[in-house]
Amino acid sequence: MHTQDTAELLLPRSREANERLHALIPGGAHTYAKGDDQYPEDLAPVISHGRGAHVWDVDGNRYIEYGSGLRSVSLGHAHPRVTEAVRREIDRGGNFVRPSYLEVEAAERFLATVPTAEMVKFAKNGSDATTAAVRLARAATGRPRVAICADHPFFSVDDWFIGTTPMSAGIPAETNDLTVTFPYGDLAATEELLTRHQGEIACLILEPATHSEPPPGYLAGLRELADRHGCVLVFDEMITGFRWSEAGAQGLYGVVPDLSTFGKALGNGFAVSALAGRRELMERGGLRHSGERVFLLSTTHGAETHSLAAAMAVQTVYAEEGVTARLHALGERLAAGVRDAAAGMGVGEHVVVRGRASNLVFATLDGNGQPSQEYRTLFLRRLLAGGVLAPSFVVSSALSDADIDHTVDAVAQACAVYRKALDDGDPTPWLGGRPVKPVFRRLV
């Protein structure tokens, strides 16, 4: 059953498991965004299992879960059509000394789903794919610099991106100097950057959309700028892939990049990512050209049969069951409910839902309208007490209307406490310990 009161939510087994995790694994998790510093003190559940839109922690508490698998599990946990496809391939062997026939089928299925691409290569995580795109762009243009969108939070674990964050320890300054930034939605600023570094920028890489729609003509304008300045246009579709449309944001907005990268929803939690793009560029990483070879992607586990089977099943489910439309409908219902609940408790200007309906996030603002980690902690704490695990409000298609209604009720209870804290001008009594912290910070 869902726990209803903060005083009842005790997580002794999760606390013990977190201590063991930190003793053995740097950061206590394999992704910083899953760290217990992202949750209120002593309220970071360690998961036992999940099914559909629900997860259970090792203490036996059940939660409605949002942002599942860092947005990767868009169909819900243990989706039967995906798990059956995976199970079928596991019995046939997972990795061979030569390509399996499944690789042909998986590539054909992907390119039929994303028809704006002409070739595809699979890998295991998003960073592999985005870094391969950058390397390919540098090889094709002979230019050293990479231009990344400054308004998008993450592109890769590799040096060319991490060097631009507050966690740049261990990355040479010379590497950092080769990455420059441009603002989202501002074509004039991007053109100024390209002109200032004339002939030096290999690629523009960005998420084609995030928490707001692209300004009219923006993506087409970037396409024209890239063509005019001779650089490669790369769309990072890790999040927008499938959640915006089955063919990603490029399919929805009708602007074709030179290269694009997919992951997350592609495998519904199984490890698979993809680099896709124009044949002329992609073939440079192959064997059927006369130019200098590019070490594009070469991964021992990149073509594991069960992960490719998962990706094929995901694409089938999206197409046959209209998943993208369902994600948007669920998100719209949730956003409307949260906004009504927040307004009803007098905090409509402080608990703010943003983003496309299929990719909702929330902001927690203090009395001055500024983002607040303290108020986020209060909000997360009350949601957890109400049986809702929600670092974001990113939906999965496994959510039911009852799940949404329960979430809105939990939000209303959280907003009642939020109002009290605003009235007192101090959220501290409701934090239960230290506040949550941003992922990217220089010191622990």
UniProtKB/TrEMBL annotation:
Output the Gene Ontology terms for molecular function.
glutamate-1-semialdehyde 2,1-aminomutase activity
Its Enzyme Commission number(s) read 5.4.3.8
Q: Which UniProt keywords apply?
A: Isomerase, Pyridoxal phosphate
Enzyme class, top EC level, equals isomerase
**Record carries keyword Isomerase:** yes
Protein origin, superkingdom:
Bacteria
UniProt cofactor(s): pyridoxal 5'-phosphate
Keyword Isomerase attributed? yes
The protein's matches in SUPFAM superfamilies, at most eight in alphabetical order, are given as: PLP-dependent transferases
> Could you say which protein family the record assigns here?
Belongs to the class-III pyridoxal-phosphate-dependent aminotransferase family.
- Protein name as annotated: Glutamate-1-semialdehyde 2,1-aminomutase
